[in-house]
Automatic annotation (TrEMBL):
Domain Plastocyanin-like: 70-175
Coiled coil: none
Enzymatic reactions: nitric oxide + Fe(III)-[cytochrome c] + H2O = Fe(II)-[cytochrome c] + nitrite + 2 H(+)
InterPro entries: Cu-oxidase-like_N, Cu-oxidase_fam, Cupredoxin, NO2-reductase_Cu
GO MF, any single term: nitrite reductase (NO-forming) activity
The protein, known as: Copper-containing nitrite reductase
Lineage, broadest ranks: Bacteria, Pseudomonadati, Pseudomonadota, Alphaproteobacteria, Caulobacterales
Signal sequence residues: 1-22
Subunit note: Homotrimer.
rRNA-binding found in the keyword field: no
Domain of life, source organism: Bacteria
E.C. code: 1.7.2.1
Cofactor(s) recorded in Swiss-Prot or TrEMBL: Cu(+); Cu(2+)
Amino acid sequence: MKRLTLLAGVALLSLSAAAVRAQDAAPAGDPAPAADIIRRGDDLPGPLAAQTGPRHHVVDLETTEVIGQLEDGTTYTYWTYNDRVPGPMIRVRVGDTVEVNLRNADTSAMMHNVDFHAVTGPGGGAAATNANPGERRSFTFRAVAPGLYVYHCATPMVAQHIANGMYGLILVEPEGGLPPVDHEFYVMQGEIYTEQPQGTPGLLTESIDNLLNEQPTYYVMNGAFKALTGPNALQVRVGETARIYFGVGGPNKTSSFHVIGEIFDHVYNMGSLTSATVDDVQTVSVPPGGATVVDLTFEVPGSYIMVDHALSRVDRGAAGIIEVTGSQNPDLFRGDDAAHNHMEH
């Protein structure tokens, strides 16, 4: 039995005074310790080794409610799988059996659960994993269709749980796996809805009105404002290939995923791993609750910016950096500043 030590959790509650209690525990402006909730882009399991016959994976998930750093001087109460946003990336192969064990932390204020889009069964596992604080729930499923799938909390109000950070990806590899690349990365986009304007110091509170009106304060990649920049930038060398597993937790907005200065060599459209790839693509549209896989080859050094090409969202946090190091390639690209394009974190 292969055990994936993953922690994440479970939720079930309608919108009520209890539903906002966790966010209202401290008013905006109050100092509070802030956890690092950012999941690094290289924090994902590697390709599965060849094996005869199906595997049995045990996935342990814990849901937590933690105050995390949203941007410098600004914090937010996230609801998470594994204390990180997004939750852990899970990797199995078609035909494998997956045993999901969910524990809702004792310190949670809310009920939580998990719905896997890769599951064929009622609620994607949500009904089987409804857990009050301190409770454990389990279910087992067989991965029957290859693809890259979203999972998320499906406790009412579902959009609230997703907006607070409860989403992740599960990769179901096809038989034989995927073609090898030099690097693999895990990136998810989401939205955060607050009562206070962007950049307000202190602990921000969620806004249900803004959520229902689909007016995000922040657009984030991997949980926080421009989280995948600076020390968290993705690292590649000239001549290397990279694969990005990209998903949108949402809960509301479609992403126009684009890497400035690069062209996707191959796109596994809509996360399908059995359809023919679409090649030489500039921008990929990914809906909330959807995913894609893109392959790139980096041939010129520099700082490449990952964006949602609805570009106003860059200033609200939806951007990351791929740092490419190595020798210049003047036959392919020359300019007054051939080294880097910079973006402030």
